[in-house]
Amino acid sequence: MSLQTRIFAAVAMVAASAMPPMGLPAAAQEVPNDYPTVVRADYVFACMASNGQTRQALEQCACSIDVIASILPYEAYVKAETFLRTVQVTGERVAAFRGSARHKAMVSDLRRAQAEADVVCF
Asked: Do the Cβ atoms of 28 and 15 come closer than 8 Å?
């Protein structure tokens, strides 16, 4: 086992022990694979655009979407992503969404999952 693999495994174990049971990485709990491949690929492409087009970025970004998928059901992910795209639009019709506690909670769940993925994968 390479040094990088051992370090990743140690970080993943520490992060997993600090997470609540619902937030364990995919490797640590049985999670249905309900994220379509194209959604995972879109996430990885966007992530790599932000983090470099390297093999290491590919592995980290793939790990990241796997961790997010282990924490957040696909339906919740889609709703949060849709909300984030909607509020980028200007105008009065979107203003009601920006202040909604329900929508803020959805985004908060997504942000928490992304933060967990950053800890485990980056």
From this structure: no
Residue burial 93-115, b: 16+ Cβ < 10 Å; e: rest: eeeeeeeeeebeebeebbeebbe
* Residue among 64, 68, 90 at smallest CA distance from 78: 68
What single letter denotes the amino acid at residue 56?
Q
pLDDT of residue 2: 52
The CA distance from 89 to 27, in Å, is: 37
Predicted pLDDT at 1:
55
Which residue is associated with the tokens 């640590």?
Answer: 28
Taking the C-alpha atoms of residue 24 and residue 40, their distance in angstroms, rounded to an integer, is: 18
Give the model confidence (pLDDT) of 23-66 as tens digits. 445 444 455 679 999 999 999 999 999 999 999 999 999 999 99
